[in-house]
Design a protein that fits this description.
heterotrimer, A alpha+beta, B mainly alpha, C alpha/beta, A: alpha+beta, 8-stranded antiparallel β-barrel, elongated, C: alpha/beta, Alkaline Phosphatase, subunit A, 2 domains, 7-stranded mixed sheet, 10 helices, 11 strands, globular
């Protein structure tokens, strides 16, 4: 929680506006960013409060449970796991993974999760989660540790007791960390433009999110580079224009559906219905904040069922998400198809340009970059050889 | 600007194949200028060890780009600012020969492997499990002259054939034996060293000149950074290269080829000290933008700028220190803090994009680029002394004396000394010591003008919270920043004389005798050409001075 | 909400890899393999060989403050060398001696070493025939490598080993060194079977062809280049000898264990002291086992060149800059940051001594059969001083040196230390050095 406090303090120091460098002239400005960190928003101030049963302590516990599901006694299961060490043998794993029953025959639990018994994993009973009030039921509300508002985040309720979600930034839930690191060196980056009359003062702003034509680039430490130049994909499916406002240093938007095209093995897409957003700017210009809304829980859980055994009980998560889904009931079955959830993101200052070479959004002042009051060459045109 | 077209160059060997099939073996080398007779009265010959890039380029030209070279070459020696001069002193150590042997066997194995043998061996043994002298002989007759850069005597060829036969017997494999015999050619001193052999000069009775094959090698390594091609060897064989017209024809041919960029790049890579990049590392926690790619690309940036300015645009050498025109990749642009739009598709290699520093940009000219500012800086802090010394020694051919021993550092003995926050403050304190002041005043005021560039070559406006003062001074001229420094270097007469002397030494292995009228003529023509560097290369390549034995004047100049 | 800053430096990766690497673990030579006294191999009667190792650390130990008051065995190690105390009885500390410049300029970080390693000081930067090379050739015997040189910061110039042909480059990559020593060409001396490799036989026979070229070449060259050609052919003979040795069944050496390959390290340049020390440990592990496995008898390690660019993590100022800019701490009496670097180096030296000590060869340890000579570029580096050099030796070299002594030689020629070591190692010379650095008598109190 210390990170949250620090950030609040910064907002106070900066006062009104987004804490971004002041523009020297009172004219509209557009600043460029590239999304450099993205994952499910986690909150683990006290695991014992969140998950008092302590049933989800990790791989060992999961292995024992899964062995019991295929017929072993608790005692037998504990011994098998103790003998096997970190990894269960392939024979056990095969039997566990084919424990679904389809037309009376064993089948892959990952392909037929509905034909697999719900292992009934522990879910979050504690009070806190990041998010926004999406208008959900009062009984299932969490409290956002930053805004202290009552918010909806049934995604967190479903996944929050699973060990791999016991991560706090800069860490990400393990499967997301793994996928993100595989993806960012090849998948097109997501760009973010912030436009307003004067981003150093409160007032209305426009946020435009797009895909870039190229992937993220890393620095010598393996982190994402700031101030890199990205071209905004002209006809991207990920084009989102959002009306927003800066008030007391916090940027929020008018709720709207958003869509970002993703790439496996990370999320195939980031699609939120009625999305809310909330950002602040760090002194170095990095935007840090949350997106919340309703998302298709089957698509979310696909990341886990498609890559089983990444520190999470895929089938357990599947059933928990299905159970807690809180929006968009299927007219035939009544099963909710969407679930409230929240993502955390960071965006680093970057140059954004059009394919023709025009720079449309320079980065904000960044102590790591060339230190100039105004970014140079905002209309520089380059021709390739 | 248009990229320099790089034609698909067939390997020397591939060009030679049809020729060798038609021409009897002897005619290739039984020409007037056969290997020089063993003469005890010949002038001091010189043996220059091939540089790693000359080795690589020669193998690439002889055997083609699909033969890869893996291994570490013995380090080179820099003398008077050039590895090309140090090549005269470079020897082969135990571990160096082990490395050459590993590299050679790696190359030879590829030349005879299934993929390449049809192209490069050129004949099929009667029995692949046994020796075949005829096939081995035809192979070495073709490859030998290209590797040794002169015809081989029949004895030399027979020695290779015998070695192949013995080895084939040991390993029960024709190609295995051929490969080992070839590998031994590649570690022979006749391949690893370029020997400058002299012969009597008929035009100057009593005088001497470089013999025809040595001259062919010298020209080829100077202008193309590689072993002579067949045409050049033919010009040596016929003796044409020893006539003014024949020499001019070859020089013009080599210079008008796009491959002259290889010679220009090799020369400036040597002159600007790029071999020292092997030991450059920057602290990623201070300089996260200085990635390994940036390290490589910063050298390429300057070499591209040089080739574009000097070869493509026929520009004035002095303008290299002031030109706003350069090339960037996106990664370098991040280091420099400027945008660079590269419309390459996702996943494609970064492209080099022409870039012009805007008016008012702190950068212009090659001294403001990371290839200079980062190369001559320690890994954490900058060293204005190191940068100033490098400029004097590498660019102006001046010698900066080493620091004295048993020096007193009074200012650091004062334990109440203020924290020196900037390099200027530290060095000013340092220069308060008279023992140090003499030399530091030669170097520091130059380097201090570059203090806006941090140790990794990125731009900064302050050091430890104190604004940087980038005023500088060189030889009485005051200026500000790298732009001012570039203008001063541009106007310094040492700039042009230094590059000319080093170009001469890059060809010959020694500095030119400055007082020699032939040298003065070369300098006059360089000046008259508005310091056109390619023209300078032509004049050096055409001058008799380059092919005379190193006279006493040159010897003095070297010391 | 802090932005993410996962720092994955190469240093961490390197350190992580080293943690998974192997450490030299010696096995005792089985007594049945030895003669009754445990001093020689039983089957051949050949005495267990004497080895010589050198270890260069940059930038000295500071000013006068490190010099112990007492001479002989009854002395106290100074704070800068306190980490060496476990080996106090097996080491000697030489203090006080100097290099005479004789009117030549002090080419900083070079001339001093030139003076005591080659015996001659010259302005020209010549550096030939260093004492470690001379010793290596005398004690070398028939081993695969006449000597092995390594450097720990990625610079192949970290080498003070020189033959008549010039300095030998340092290997910078532990991976490459491993392949060179223990790669496919390594013949395990303790293997019960031995089959000569036909490929090596073929290489050996072909090599003589190169040697045959000598005659035709040499007559076309003048004296200077003839000599350079001879250097080449000397290297060629070493290569031939290496192949010859590979074609013979090696003498069993039970103290030899082939190490696992070290963590992959291409020898890229490093600038943090911790990275250089991690690589140091990887190197000393390989060098120790190269000695134990009879691959060479002469090994040489340099941490950096004299003007060290190594830094402490998070600190932009390097060791060399600190020597000149750091005030002497009035309480401690020395430069604190510089002392930090010295301590890192000395810890690494102790690590190596421990590796050598851990290998038992009969009645002694490998360290006992070795002389490990540690030297540096300046007396007081702050002043570029060539006075009061600290030198250390570890081990007795099969009983040829006494140990446990502090030997102060104020004002004496530093070349006397190196001359003494040469005599101890059996180099048949009666004098060493030129000018004021010429010495004809050894430091007799350390000769056993």
């Amino acid at each position: 929680m210390s990170a949250v406090k620090a950030s609040t303090a910064l907002a106070l120091v900066c006062g009104a506006g987004l804490c971004l460098a002041a523009s020297s002239q009172a004219r509209a400005e557009t600043r460029g960013f590239v999304i450099s960190w993205f994952a499910t928003a986690t909150d683990i101030p006290d695991y014992k409060v969140d998950c008092p049963l302590g049933r989800m302590d990790g791989q060992t516990e999961m292995n024992v449970r899964q062995l019991r599901e295929i017929g072993y006694s608790q005692e037998q299961a504990v011994k098998i796991v103790a003998d096997a060490g970190a990894q269960l043998g392939p024979d056990y794993r095969y039997r566990i993974d084919t424990n679904a029953q389809v037309k009376g025959k064993p089948a892959s639990v990952f392909n037929y999760p509905d034909a697999t018994a719900d292992p009934n994993i522990e879910t979050v009973t504690g009070p806190y989660a990041y998010g926004f009030d999406l208008g959900g039921k009062a009984a299932s509300k969490f409290i956002d540790p930053e805004t202290h508002q009552k918010i909806d985040n049934q995604l967190w309720r479903s996944v929050g007791c699973t060990e791999s979600f016991h991560e706090a930034p800069p860490g990400k839930p393990y499967p997301e960390e793994l996928s993100w690191n595989l993806m960012i060196d090849s998948a097109p980056a997501w760009t973010l433009q912030l436009s307003g009359k004067d981003l150093s003062h409160d007032g209305p702003v426009t946020i435009t999110i797009d895909s870039a034509t190229q992937h993220l680039e890393r620095d010598a430490n393996g982190n994402v580079l700031a101030d890199y130049t990205y071209i905004v994909e002209p006809n991207s499916r990920s084009h989102n224009v959002l009306a927003g406002e800066i008030r007391d240093g916090v940027l929020t938007i008018k709720p709207k559906d958003i869509y970002l095209e993703g790439e496996l093995p990370f999320y195939a897409e980031i699609a939120l219905r009625g999305a809310h957003m909330r950002f602040k700017a760090e002194p170095n210009g990095t935007l840090v904040g949350y997106w919340g809304g309703y998302l298709n829980w089957r698509r979310f859980v696909y990341m886990y069922t498609a890559r089983p055994a990444n520190g999470a009980d895929s089938i357990g998560l599947y059933h928990a998400l299905k159970r807690f889904a809180d929006s968009d009931p299927d007219p035939k079955t009544g099963q909710n198809r969407y679930i409230s959830g929240t993502f955390r993101m960071e965006a680093l200052p970057a140059y954004l340009a059009r394919l023709d070479g025009t720079v449309i959004a320079p980065p904000v002042h960044n102590p790591g970059a060339l230190q100039r009051v105004e970014p140079p060459h905002t209309d520089v045109k380059t021709v390739t050889n | 600007m248009k990229a320099i077209p790089i034609p698909r160059v067939r390997t020397w060997l591939a060009r030679l194949l049809p020729l060798a099939a038609l021409v009897p073996l002897q005619s290739a080398w039984s020409a007037p200028a056969s290997p020089p007779p063993a003469s005890s009265d010949a002038s001091t010959p010189l043996a220059l060890r091939l540089s790693p890039s000359q080795y690589r380029q020669s193998i690439l030209d002889i055997f083609g780009p699909s033969v890869s070279i893996t291994g570490t070459f013995e380090p080179e020696t820099r003398v008077q600012g050039l590895l090309a001069i140090g090549a005269r002193q470079s020897n082969v150590s135990d571990s160096g020969l082990e490395s050459y042997d590993d590299i050679a066997r790696g190359i030879a194995d590829q030349v005879v492997d299934q993929k390449h043998r049809a192209t490069y061996v050129g004949c099929t043994p009667r029995d692949p499990k046994a020796s075949d002298d005829a096939c081995a002989r035809s192979f070495f007759s073709r490859v030998g002259p290209l590797l040794y850069r002169r015809p081989l005597t029949p004895d030399e060829i027979e020695a290779r054939v015998r070695a192949a036969a013995v080895a084939s017997g040991d390993v029960h494999d024709f190609y295995g034996g051929l490969s080992l015999s070839l590998a031994e050619m590649l570690i022979s001193p006749q391949f690893l060293f370029r020997y400058k052999m002299y012969e009597p000069d008929p035009a100057h009775p009593g005088g001497e000149r470089l013999d025809a094959y040595s001259k062919a090698s010298e020209l080829s390594f100077f202008l193309w950074n590689t072993s002579p091609d067949q045409e050049l060897l033919n010009a040596a064989a016929t003796g044409a290269i020893q006539t003014p017209a024949g020499l001019e024809q070859q020089v013009n041919r080599l210079i008008s080829s796009p491959r002259v960029t290889e010679g220009v790049r090799a020369f400036f890579g040597d002159m600007l000290g790029y071999s020292d990049f092997d030991t450059v590392a920057k602290d990623p926690s201070f300089f996260p933008r200085y990635t390994l790619n940036v390290k490589d690309e910063s050298q390429e940036q300057t070499l591209r700028t040089i080739v574009d300015h000097l070869v493509t645009r026929h520009g004035d050498y002095r303008d290299l220190f002031t030109t706003p025109h350069t090339f960037l990749t996106r990664a370098l642009a991040v280091l420099y803090g400027v945008p660079l739009v590269d419309p390459s598709d996702n996943g494609q290699p970064q492209r080099w994009i022409p870039y012009t520093y805007a008016p008012g940009d702190p950068r212009s000219g090659i001294l403001s680029e990371a290839s200079f500012t980062a190369l001559f800086s320690p890994s954490g802090r900058t060293s204005p002394t190191g940068r100033g010394k490098a400029l004097r020694e590498y660019i102006l051919c001046e010698k900066v004396p080493p620091p004295p021993g048993n020096v007193s550092f009074k200012f650091v003995e004062d334990t109440t000394n203020p924290q020196f926050k900037t390099a200027r403050a530290r060095l000013t304190a340092h220069r308060s010591e008279p023992m140090c002041a003499g030399c530091h005043k030669l170097t520091d005021p130059i380097g201090l003008a570059l203090e806006n560039f941090n140790s990794a070559g990125g731009y900064r406006t302050d050091e430890n919270g104190v604004a940087i003062d980038a005023t500088g001074e060189m030889n009485g001229h005051q200026f500000v920043g790298s732009v001012g420094l570039g203008n001063t270097v541009h106007d310094d007469p040492a700039t042009t004389s230094c590059v000319a002397r080093k170009a001469f030494a890059f060809e010959t292995g020694y500095m030119p005798p400055g007082s020699d009228p032939q040298w003065q003529q070369i300098m006059q023509k360089f000046s008259a050409s508005h310091y056109n560097f390619v023209e300078l290369m032509r004049q050096i390549a055409l001058s008799d001075l380059s092919y005379e034995p190193q006279g006493p004047a040159a010897l003095t100049a070297s010391n | 909400m802090k932005p993410s800053t996962l720092i994955w430096t190469r240093r961490r990766v390197l350190r992580g890899m080293l943690a998974g690497g192997t450490v030299a673990v010696g096995l005792p030579i089985l007594d049945c393999m030895l003669n009754d006294n445990g001093t020689a191999l039983a089957d051949t009667g050949a005495p267990l060989p004497t080895r010589f190792a050198t270890w260069f650390w940059p930038l000295g130990l500071g000013e006068e403050d490190w010099r112990p008051k007492n001479a002989g065995t009854d002395y106290e190690l100074p704070p800068q060398l306190a980490v060496l105390s476990p080996f106090k009885k097996k080491l000697n500390l030489f203090s006080g001696s100097q290099v005479f410049l004789d009117g030549q300029s002090n080419n900083t970080h070079f001339t001093g070493v030139q003076g005591f390693m080659t015996g001659t000081v010259s302005n020209s930067g010549e550096y030939f025939n260093s004492m470690n090379c001379i010793i290596g050739d005398v004690i070398g015997g028939r081993t695969r490598f006449r000597s092995l040189e390594v450097g720990c910061d990625g610079d192949s110039k970290d080498s003070w080993t020189a033959r008549a042909s010039g300095r030998l480059p340092a290997e910078v990559s532990p991976t490459a060194l491993y392949t060179r020593i223990f790669g496919p060409e390594f013949v395990d001396p303790n293997s019960s079977t031995f089959v000569p490799d036909p490929q090596v036989m073929a290489r050996r026979s072909v090599l003589s062809g190169v040697a045959d070229e000598r005659a035709s070449l040499v007559k076309r060259l003048d004296a200077a280049d003839r000599q350079r050609l001879d250097y080449y052919f000397t290297a060629l003979r070493s290569l031939e000898q290496k192949l010859d040795i590979q074609l013979q069944k090696p003498q069993p050496l039970p103290a030899c264990t082939k190490p696992n390959a070290p963590a992959k390290d291409d020898g890229h340049p490093v600038q943090l002291c911790s990275d250089a020390m991690a690589r140091h440990d990887a190197f000393t592990n390989l060098l120790t086992l190269a000695l134990a496995c009879g691959q060479t008898r002469s090994v040489n390690l340099g941490i950096t060149q004299g003007m060290s660019g190594l830094r402490k993590e998070g600190d932009p100022t390097n060791h060399h800059t600190y020597t000149h800019e750091e005030p002497i701490d009035p309480k401690a009496g020395y430069q604190l940051n510089c002392a930090w670097f010295q301590e890192q180096y000395m810890k690494a030296l102790v690590d190596w001594a421990n590796q050598l000590e851990a290998i038992k060869e009969g009645d002694r340890t490998l360290l006992d059969r070795t002389v490990l000579f540690a030297y540096t570029d300046h007396g007081a580096a702050r002043l570029h001083s060539v006075h009061n050099y600290p030198f250390l030796t570890f081990g007795s070299g099969n009983g040829r040196l006494k140990t446990g002594l502090h030997i102060p030689k104020p004002g004496d020629a530093a070349s006397r230390v190196t001359f003494t070591l040469m005599l101890a190692m059996g180099v048949p010379i009666s004098a060493f050095g030129t000018g004021s650095n010429r010495v004809t008598t050894p430091i007799s109190e350390v000769l056993a």
